[in-house]
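so my prof wants the structure for this chain in the C-alpha coordinates format not the other one, which i didnt know existed until like an hour ago. anyway here's the sequence
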Amino acid sequence: MTAKYYLDTNIFLNVVYNEQSFVESSLQLLRHVQEGRLVGLTSSVTEIEIALDLAKTGNRDKVDQTLGLIERMANLTICPLNSWTAKMAAKLVLDSGMMIHDAYHSATAIEHKADVFVTRDKQLNKKLKTQVKVSEPDALM
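here's what i got, hopefully its the right format
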Protein backbone atom coordinates (compact mmCIF):
# COMPACT_ATOMS: atom_id res chain seq x y z
CA MET A 1 0.00 0.00 0.00
CA THR A 2 1.30 3.44 -0.93
CA ALA A 3 1.98 5.84 1.92
CA LYS A 4 -0.35 8.84 2.25
CA TYR A 5 1.19 12.31 2.45
CA TYR A 6 -0.84 15.18 3.87
CA LEU A 7 0.16 18.41 2.11
CA ASP A 8 -0.11 21.61 4.12
CA THR A 9 -1.13 24.84 2.39
CA ASN A 10 2.42 26.22 2.39
CA ILE A 11 3.53 23.47 -0.02
CA PHE A 12 1.07 24.71 -2.65
CA LEU A 13 1.85 28.38 -1.94
CA ASN A 14 5.58 27.73 -2.49
CA VAL A 15 4.68 26.84 -6.08
CA VAL A 16 1.93 29.44 -6.58
CA TYR A 17 4.33 32.25 -5.63
CA ASN A 18 7.44 30.61 -7.11
CA GLU A 19 9.26 31.07 -3.80
CA GLN A 20 12.92 30.65 -4.70
CA SER A 21 14.13 28.81 -1.61
CA PHE A 22 11.24 26.35 -1.59
CA VAL A 23 9.67 25.99 -5.03
CA GLU A 24 11.87 23.20 -6.37
CA SER A 25 11.29 20.65 -3.59
CA SER A 26 7.59 21.53 -3.28
CA LEU A 27 7.11 21.24 -7.05
CA GLN A 28 8.95 17.93 -7.09
CA LEU A 29 6.70 16.63 -4.30
CA LEU A 30 3.57 17.70 -6.18
CA ARG A 31 4.89 16.03 -9.34
CA HIS A 32 5.39 12.78 -7.44
CA VAL A 33 1.76 12.96 -6.34
CA GLN A 34 0.56 13.84 -9.85
CA GLU A 35 2.52 10.92 -11.32
CA GLY A 36 1.15 8.46 -8.74
CA ARG A 37 4.41 7.81 -6.91
CA LEU A 38 2.82 9.28 -3.77
CA VAL A 39 -0.76 9.54 -2.57
CA GLY A 40 -1.59 13.11 -1.56
CA LEU A 41 -4.17 14.43 0.87
CA THR A 42 -5.11 17.95 1.79
CA SER A 43 -8.09 19.70 3.35
CA SER A 44 -10.74 21.94 1.90
CA VAL A 45 -9.19 24.46 4.34
CA THR A 46 -6.22 24.53 1.95
CA GLU A 47 -8.49 25.90 -0.75
CA ILE A 48 -9.82 28.58 1.59
CA GLU A 49 -6.33 29.62 2.66
CA ILE A 50 -5.02 29.76 -0.91
CA ALA A 51 -8.02 31.80 -2.11
CA LEU A 52 -7.69 34.27 0.75
CA ASP A 53 -3.92 34.55 0.38
CA LEU A 54 -4.18 35.20 -3.37
CA ALA A 55 -6.84 37.85 -2.78
CA LYS A 56 -4.79 39.47 0.00
CA THR A 57 -1.74 39.73 -2.26
CA GLY A 58 -3.67 41.33 -5.12
CA ASN A 59 -4.10 38.12 -7.13
CA ARG A 60 -7.82 37.55 -6.70
CA ASP A 61 -8.15 37.06 -10.45
CA LYS A 62 -6.00 33.90 -10.16
CA VAL A 63 -8.09 32.17 -7.48
CA ASP A 64 -10.34 30.10 -9.77
CA GLN A 65 -7.51 28.99 -12.04
CA THR A 66 -5.24 28.06 -9.13
CA LEU A 67 -7.90 26.13 -7.23
CA GLY A 68 -8.98 24.43 -10.45
CA LEU A 69 -5.44 23.15 -11.01
CA ILE A 70 -5.31 21.76 -7.49
CA GLU A 71 -8.77 20.19 -7.76
CA ARG A 72 -7.83 18.43 -11.02
CA MET A 73 -4.55 17.11 -9.67
CA ALA A 74 -4.32 13.33 -10.00
CA ASN A 75 -3.77 11.28 -6.85
CA LEU A 76 -4.69 14.18 -4.57
CA THR A 77 -7.75 13.93 -2.35
CA ILE A 78 -9.19 17.17 -1.02
CA CYS A 79 -10.85 16.09 2.21
CA PRO A 80 -13.98 17.98 3.30
CA LEU A 81 -14.52 19.06 6.88
CA ASN A 82 -17.05 17.10 8.90
CA SER A 83 -18.24 16.85 12.48
CA TRP A 84 -15.43 14.49 13.56
CA THR A 85 -12.81 16.81 12.06
CA ALA A 86 -14.31 19.82 13.83
CA LYS A 87 -14.34 18.05 17.20
CA MET A 88 -10.75 16.81 16.78
CA ALA A 89 -9.63 20.29 15.68
CA ALA A 90 -11.21 21.81 18.81
CA LYS A 91 -9.40 19.22 20.95
CA LEU A 92 -6.08 20.03 19.27
CA VAL A 93 -6.58 23.77 19.84
CA LEU A 94 -7.43 23.23 23.50
CA ASP A 95 -4.75 20.61 24.20
CA SER A 96 -1.81 21.97 22.21
CA GLY A 97 -2.59 25.62 21.56
CA MET A 98 -2.63 25.16 17.77
CA MET A 99 -4.17 27.87 15.65
CA ILE A 100 -7.59 26.77 14.39
CA HIS A 101 -6.57 26.46 10.72
CA ASP A 102 -3.55 24.34 11.70
CA ALA A 103 -5.83 22.22 13.88
CA TYR A 104 -8.18 21.60 10.94
CA HIS A 105 -5.24 20.47 8.80
CA SER A 106 -3.94 18.27 11.60
CA ALA A 107 -7.33 16.73 12.37
CA THR A 108 -7.85 15.98 8.68
CA ALA A 109 -4.47 14.26 8.46
CA ILE A 110 -5.24 12.19 11.55
CA GLU A 111 -8.75 11.29 10.39
CA HIS A 112 -7.52 10.12 6.99
CA LYS A 113 -4.56 8.27 8.50
CA ALA A 114 -1.82 10.19 6.73
CA ASP A 115 1.56 8.54 7.14
CA VAL A 116 3.43 11.85 6.81
CA PHE A 117 2.33 15.45 7.32
CA VAL A 118 4.35 17.63 4.94
CA THR A 119 4.79 21.23 6.05
CA ARG A 120 7.36 23.99 6.35
CA ASP A 121 5.63 25.38 9.44
CA LYS A 122 8.15 24.78 12.24
CA GLN A 123 5.75 25.67 15.06
CA LEU A 124 3.13 23.28 13.73
CA ASN A 125 5.81 20.63 13.32
CA LYS A 126 6.62 20.82 17.05
CA LYS A 127 2.96 20.60 18.08
CA LEU A 128 2.03 17.85 15.64
CA LYS A 129 4.93 15.42 15.82
CA THR A 130 3.34 13.47 18.67
CA GLN A 131 0.29 12.81 16.47
CA VAL A 132 1.80 11.97 13.06
CA LYS A 133 5.22 11.89 11.41
CA VAL A 134 6.08 15.38 10.12
CA SER A 135 8.53 16.25 7.36
CA GLU A 136 9.57 19.11 5.12
CA PRO A 137 9.48 18.40 1.36
CA ASP A 138 13.27 18.70 1.11
CA ALA A 139 13.70 15.72 3.41
CA LEU A 140 11.43 13.59 1.23
CA MET A 141 12.91 14.38 -2.17
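also thought this was worth mentioning. The helical segments are 9-16, 23-34, 44-56, 63-71, 83-96, 100-111, 122-128, 137-140.
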